[in-house]
Amino acid sequence: MLLIHDFVRLTLLPLEPEEKSYTPSQMPEFRKHTNTILKMIEKFNSVTAKLSMRELIMKTQDRNSFDLRSQLETGSLDSCHIVLTTLGSAGSKALEYCNKFECVVVDEAAQSVEPSTLSALELGSSHAVLVGDPQQLPATIFSLSGRKTKFDRSLFQRLEEAGHPVHMLDTQYRMNPMISFFPRSIFYNGELNDGPNVKKLTYGDPLRTKILSALRKFQVSLWREYFQCCLTTTVHFSTTSFSFFRL
Q1: What would the pLDDT profile of 143-202 be if each residue is shown by its tens digit?
Q2: SS3 of 181, please?
Q3: Which conformational region is residue 189 in: left (phi greater than 0), alpha (psi within -120 to 50 degrees), or beta?
Q4: Based on the number of CB atoms within 10 Å of its own CB, is 153 exposed (0-12), middle (13-18) or buried (19 or more)?
Q5: What contacts 160, CB < 8 A, 6 or more positions away?
Q6: What confidence tier does 242 reach under pLDDT thresholds 50, 70, 90?
Q7: Alpha carbon distance 55, 235 (integer Å)
Q8: Which residue from 194, 199, 204, 213 lies 20 to 30 Å from 159 (Cα-Cα)?
Q9: Around 22, how many Cα atoms within 13 Å sit in the side-chain half-sphere?
Q10: Which residues pair with 130 in a beta bridge?
Q11: How far apart are CA 75 and CA 69, in angstroms?
């Protein structure tokens, strides 16, 4: 008998030389049964979570509502594989008491002060990944004494200054090449590349075509001349990057 929790542990065996492979679209019955099994797994996980909450409620009947809520939140977090949170709520009691995560990823790490990042790193057990762009605005603080003591410096920046290896993400997929021309040349020293999607002539349509049709040709030429003039300015900055390390 194949139980649901045993099904997820099954692995596909390699095909024999005489066997043929088929795509899911060629096996409608297989897709139908697979969807049924997935729904059963989701139902099983839902029932298991409800049973766990019921057990917590039974164990905490003699406690106040705050303890009960904290226990329920911790139990829910322990049953999740991925948890999204802000740095501000990373130090909450529910996260403090839950099981440690194998990997912690901090986005926009270059814009947060070091103590804020440390609260998130306490949740990890082995790996941490800091993702950020040093060319964007740093953390905002209003204390002059804090700036003198480098309180506005992020952990990302401190690790980079200490010589920790930093890995650059060298492709951008958002800006039109005419718009990215300036930051790529000035802030990233030409090391940032345009993705294949933004290089297409139809990128940004239909809004792009509508806007360009309202511009005169000499206006577009002036922008190109401005970008060329900006290239003569020499500014050296570090690159868009991310850093990862072991806790």
Answers
A1: 878 778 888 888 998 998 898 888 888 899 988 888 889 888 888 888 999 999 988 888
A2: helix
A3: left
A4: middle
A5: 134, 166, 238, 241, 243
A6: very low
A7: 61
A8: 194
A9: 9
A10: 106, 243
A11: 10
